[in-house]
Records
---
Amino acid sequence: MNVAAPISGRVTNLTRSLLGALLLLFGAQACAEAQATSNLAEQRAKAVTQVVLGILSYARWPVEPVQLRLCLIGPTEYADDLVKGTTQATGRPVQVRRLLADDPRIASECDAIYIGKLSQDERSRLFTALSGHPVLSMSEADDPCTVGSLFCLRVSDRQVAFDVNLDSVARSGVRIHPSVLQLSRRRAAQP
């Protein structure tokens, strides 16, 4: 019985050491995967910011705002970089804030809105409230771009592209330079 005790103790210590090494290995692998996912999400957010700023630079309002007011509506997946605030290439600052979809200030205090995930009912009420107000709208969440939004982002691992709803553009009161419409067609043609 005395002989078995030291062997059992050595096996237990060896088992613990192996388990500890495996946990460290899997932990390091999980951290590396989390870091890669975080980097990819950060890259997507930066790419979305560039596309959003590009779209905004091609827009003209009936009365040009000195400071562009961009409102984020609903939960967003790619707007983290936008939230930090930014400046357009022209030097015009972009003030970014989050508002709820039913906030009555959207139509009067937002020059542009970036829409995340909303229910159909919320989207309908939002676009009803925006009717007659010059507000540029962009959607990020699986939007077929058939109702409401002027621009619908399509985010993938390789690029951020967008669709344009010409009917919504015509009704928005915001003028969009034709170059952005051509850019949309060109990106749609890319694989």
---
Amino acid sequence: MDETCWTPLHLSFACSNVHLKAYVDSKTLAEREILSYGSSKNAGLEIVTLACGLVGGDALLSFTPLSVAMFLCQLTSSAIEYQSLRFLEELLGKIPIIHIDDVCDAHIFCIENPSINGRFLCASSSSVSSAEIASYYQQHYPKLQVKPEYLDGPTREMGLGSTKLIEKGFVYKYDTKMILEDCIKCARTRGDTGL
């Protein structure tokens, strides 16, 4: 999977609901449309899109962001966030992840480099399965009770080609462990019960 890959439209997925599917379809259509203006010789626009993975880490918000809640859904037993996490995994094979600080730095990097244009996949070099996230929490936070069904899941491999941004000189600072740890920190700071 790399920047040339697009989410297929109008497919049905086992973990999908009408809202998730509409969100993904509208996001894909909007990105394709805006990129078409950047490729038009007459438009005179330089367009950059960053297709970000699931964003984790701490936040400046007074509440736990939805994307962080998706990372933690196997600890909180939140069915809605777990369905969203599984939908993302089903859609992409594995879950591309990125820390919020890397997202911010990637945006600044693209703004400060006028030679950059086009579409970039913005995700740390690792992608994980929902079962790998659950296994991490079970191993490092045994008191938080991960349900056994969360430890089962697809074991397929996925090649994530987010090297285009790296080739331009961008450096990701956060790995999987750091992202997951900062998600726990974010929820605990905001007083989320059970964590």
---
Amino acid sequence: MPADDLDKTDRAILAALQNDGRMSNARLAETVGLSETPCARRLKRLENDGYIDRYRAVLSRGALGLGVVAFVLVRFAVHDRVVATRFEREVQAIPRILSCHNVSGSADYILQIVARDLDDYGTFMRDELRGLPGVTSVESALSLREVKAYGGLPLS
């Protein structure tokens, strides 16, 4: 179903679940102005149609002792599909790399990385990131303060 086929109620369900993925069906139905059975049917349809990718908990970096967030521009000297595929596979296996995007512009990839502190980040850069397939240079931008975290996708 194309996004244009989502009505106001579908969008309200998706918005409510982006704010609280553990919301009970009863509370969700009340929030969007439906009775429970039609709400459950709509929710199941939204899941089956792929609008809801998965449910997850958002963990606290602070509570887990991950005080450093870095955005890293990764560059390759040679653009070889085999090397890029190996790089992407290895990146997916490293938990401290939260996201990886293949981008246009001066870099080939942008990574979001977490670390306990600057020493931990430096060790990771030296021992792991710089040794990944294809990597010839990296440039880090350290987050000084998070202004907005993942707030969900726009539904308008």
---
Amino acid sequence: MKVEYFIGIVPPKGYNERIEQFQRKWISKSGVEPHITLKAQGGLTPDKEWIENVKRICGNVSPFQVFLGKPKYFGDTILYLSVDSDELHILHQKIVKGISPSDELIKRYFELDDFVPHLTLGKEQYGENISTPLSKDVLNEMERTAIEELTPYPAFKVDFIRVYELNTEKRRYEMFLDIPLNG
């Protein structure tokens, strides 16, 4: 059985529900709740020894503000809400350095210098969980709808981070552990 983890930041409950309702127009079942990826899978090993490092790092970081912004794309296949927060970049760097994945994993998961904080709305895909195949045209429609339905884009305080674990039976990432920031 494959064990995978990643670390994210969860927007406030009310806004997360808005994003989920928005996504359900195109995606019947998402692989994870809406989140901002803080640390991708690379180096988050099944032995979970990295969790103590992450807790120690978070214990030395004060809560901070994150600002969601207008939709953007990675290439033309992934639509996301932009995220602005210097403190989020700093926390990302501390966690990546504390876990010390290989240079290859850092590159594969677009970390450190390649890190772009984002909240994915949809990506080009086809399959059983997709109500409408997410083609480039559909992503463009999602972008237009997001501008209408998801504004105003909120700012919110981050006072914890969430570790997600892959549930292989459900083919979905689920909450594994919340880690508070110092405060």
